[in-house]
Amino acid sequence: MGAFELEHLKQFTLTRVLNDDTVFKSISLLGKLPSSDPDSEPVQSIVNLQKTAFDPNNASSIIPAISKIQLTEVNDIYAWMLGWIRSADGTYLDADVKISVISPATDVHIRKYSSQKHAMISETPKLYEKVTKPFIDAFPKSRTQWVQNILDHITETEDILFEDPSPIHGFVLLPDMKWDRKSLGSLYLLAIARSALIRSLRDLRKEHVPMLERIRQEATRVASEKWGVPKGGLRFYIHYQPSYYQFHVHIVSVEYSGFQGMSVGQAHLLEDVISLLELDDGGPTGIFERMTLTYILGEQHGLYTPMVDAGAEI
Question: Which of 8, 109, 208, 248 is catalytic?
Answer without folding.
Answer: 248
